[in-house]
């Protein structure tokens, strides 16, 4: 037993060592990736449930590593958050989204909103409001065409400071959404005070919905409660017509997921929406 314990500890250390090495490797590669622009954005359509109309997109970062191939954002975003490189990358993402917003408008798509994920580190950056103001002016994009997705992790930081920041951003007309709703600890009392426009129900509720009655009930109560607070509800991770029908019956406002469309590379976006949606 003693020897087994010893081996276990050794294996554990080796595993730790490899993970640390991997992380260091990833970190160096990320610095290079930032410099060499190995990043791109894909955009996933969001649809109004009642009408089937396209209402906008969520921007999702993609990293194509020269040797490793596609690295999922869940693997590298946490590293970039920890070393704060997410902040400059984040401004690059915002700028790309503003450029896209302009080209959509030129192409005749006038009311599409682009949702951008913001990490807690980005939202706490004291430069955020000024940079956002300047970028909107530079690209001449109205704030209402942009939405910032914040997670509950962002919102449990210094609440007064966060509220002030949200109110400042709201003066630009920019929409605010809470992402992954239901997985964190944001209290309903906070939510009432916040100048939010919408919440996104975490996809885990939707995937559990058909096997687990409780998940379906959680979804319907979230929808009812958010409508009481005059917030719009987006369901993410919609994969089946059954799920979409359930959402329609319970008055969910917007849906996003593989059933409607996969995230689409920016270069293919205009062609795709012209083929699949009507203006
Ligand atoms: P998220 O914000 O919750 O994004 C939704 C994730 O669900 C995306 O994964 C998307 O591709 C995936 N998804 C969409 N539809 C479906 C579906 O029907 N079924 C399932 N199973 N999944 C679906 P992705 O692109 O791998 O992104 C993972 C996470 O990485 C995001 O979760 C977000 O937290 C973070 N992330 C992605 N792009 C950015 C970014 O530009 N900035 C920041 N700060 N974080 C980002
Ligand atoms: Ca999101
Ligand atoms: Ca989400
Ligand atoms: Ca997530």
TrEMBL record:
Residues 23-277 form the EAL domain. This is Bifunctional diguanylate cyclase/phosphodiesterase. The keyword Secreted does not apply. The keyword Membrane applies. Keywords: Coiled coil, Membrane, Transmembrane, Transmembrane helix. It comes from the Bacteria. It comes from Rheinheimera marina.
């Amino acid at each position: 037993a003693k020897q087994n314990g010893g081996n276990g500890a050794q294996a554990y250390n080796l595993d730790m060592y490899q993970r640390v090495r991997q992380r260091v490797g990833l970190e160096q590669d990320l610095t290079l990736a930032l410099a060499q622009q190995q990043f791109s954005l894909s955009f996933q359509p969001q649809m109004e449930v009642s009408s089937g109309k396209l209402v906008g997109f969520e921007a999702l970062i993609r990293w194509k590593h020269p040797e490793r191939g596609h690295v999922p954002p869940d693997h590298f975003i946490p590293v970039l958050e920890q070393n704060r490189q997410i902040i400059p990358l984040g401004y690059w993402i915002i700028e790309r989204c503003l450029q896209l917003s302009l080209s959509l408008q030129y192409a005749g798509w006038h009311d599409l909103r682009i949702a951008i994920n913001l990490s807690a580190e980005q939202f706490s950056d004291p430069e955020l409001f000024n940079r956002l103001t300047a970028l909107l002016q530079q690209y001449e994009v109205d704030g209402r065409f942009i939405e910032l997705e914040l997670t509950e992790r962002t919102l449990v930081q210094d609440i007064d400071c966060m509220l002030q920041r949200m109110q400042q951003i709201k003066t630009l007309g920019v929409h605010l959404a809470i992402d992954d709703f239901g997985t964190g600890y944001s209290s309903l009392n906070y939510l009432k005070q916040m100048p939010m426009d919408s919440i996104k129900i975490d996809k885990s509720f939707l995937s559990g919905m058909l096997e687990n009655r409780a998940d379906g009930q959680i979804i319907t109560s979230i929808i009812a409660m958010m409508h009481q607070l005059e917030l719009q509800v987006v369901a993410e991770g919609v994969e089946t017509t059954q799920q979409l029908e359930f959402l329609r019956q319970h008055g969910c406002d917007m849906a996003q997921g593989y059933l409607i469309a996969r995230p689409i590379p920016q270069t293919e976006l205009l062609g795709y929406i012209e083929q699949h949606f009507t203006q």
